[in-house]
Design goal:
Elements: H1 3-36, H2 43-65, H3 69-91, E1 105-106, E2 109-110, H4 111-131, H5 136-143, H6 153-177, H7 203-210, H8 231-234, E3 252-253, E4 256-262, E5 270-274, E6 277-282, E7 285-289, E8 295-301, E9 312-318, E10 322-327, E11 331-337, H9 343-346, E12 350-352, E13 357-358, E14 365-368, E15 379-384, E16 388-393, E17 405-409, E18 415-419, E19 436-442, E20 445-450, E21 455-460, E22 465-471, E23 479-485, E24 488-495, E25 498-504
Length: 505
Amino acid sequence: MCDINKTKFFYFLMCLAGFLVILMPVGTANLIFGYMLGDSPCTSCWGQRESMIYIGVAALFIVRYGMKGKFLAFLLIATAFGLWQSFNHISGHAHRDLDQGFGLPIFGFHTYFWAEVVFWAVVLLLGVIFAFAPKFGSFEKEMEGASFRKLTKFNLAAMVIVAFIVASNVFQAFVSTGPIPYSGQGDPVRFSLNPKYIIWDDSGWSKSWKSISFLGKRDVKEPDFAFAPASEKLGIQFDNNIGNAPFANIDDNLKIASEIKINFPKAINTLDYINGEYVASSKWEVFFLDDNFSTKTDFLLDPYFSATINPIVGIIPYLDNKYILMGSNKSFLRFAQNPNANEVLQYADFVRGANNFEGQGKDLGRGRIDTVRAKFHHVLSTTTDGKYMYLATVPNNKDTKTFVISKISLADRVLSAEFTPKAELKEGKTLGDLYVTSMAFKDGKIYALSKKHNVIAVIDLDKEAVVKTISYPENITNARSLFFKDGKAHILSYQDGSNILYTLD
């Protein structure tokens, strides 16, 4: 095939591709789904449909005005943007259960899935078309110095049909979304030409510009740790005034019986007493301490192996002589002490201490807790009743109202229940006003320690209710851990650069 014929064939393929991109997905969605089946695109669907139109029109511009870099660049940019749009749309629905979704299904998949297929098909078709491309000099030669190419009957027919489909989409868009400032709807009603059923809505603007972030609703700042205070970036004031607690009544008041400053070089974020020894953590380090708080053995976790684990927020006993450490992102590691651990095998989990600890082996390893109501919240505490482990959310820069207790089976580490405890609260207050940094299980109840307002909420798991409220002294200013030992409550606070362990009556 000579270069001129190759050039003409290239333009034929380019015209066919641009025509099909608009005819098949855009035309079908508009003419069949829209007018015949009453389907009305949401805001994201309209955006993806526009990107498909831009791609098709750019291809036809190449057919009409010749192979120029600016048209090819626009086509590639529109394709990349469309891929981002469709990925963004799918990601909001990908986690849903079987057959759940949004809009019309086609061969079992909803329309937003097919948009992703279309944009990847454009990438594939471009590759195929350029595989048949002639030498670049042939494009200039084929133009014969003209400013535009002579159209074939097929080219002309394709452009006329494309123009009709684009015009029809403009009409449908106007009817279903209205003129500026109306911007369409996230959950549009069925398409109708009856004015009674046409809804024009401009509320999307305020939602769009309220908070601009690359992460969107996932732009949740890291929680407050002992080693990394976060009051300012969270927009949360951690006062120790018990009178500001959300509870209508405080039932009991703890008093300090004794206090001890722990000589420890790091800010302790969690402390518990498990199997006759103290277990402390600071960021990604875990320390097993004797009764004098001297380190017996320790490890430094590799947080980025397999399931990424954010800073450690709690360690609980698990099976026989094993433990579960929990990260603030609800990813965890089941681990065990073993002075004869295979260092090479355990290298994956531990930067330091692989010869004394195991994270690989039977009943060990990493995992993630999938929650429902707590999905966009961090946790700073965990406890266990031996059958389940419990997590409590903390408020953040996006949501200062929600408080959720998640209940996870230790048998399979899968969510079993979630609830917000019932409680007697002051008017206008929620349990999101707490900032629970630690939980302890005792006598069938969870004791949730809030560093904010210096209160402990006692939660009855059967009633799913706060059945008692306890205050602790306001000079404990940064409570990080609560545990029971020898029948007494102990609170660890990292304040004024020191780790202080309080025993309370």
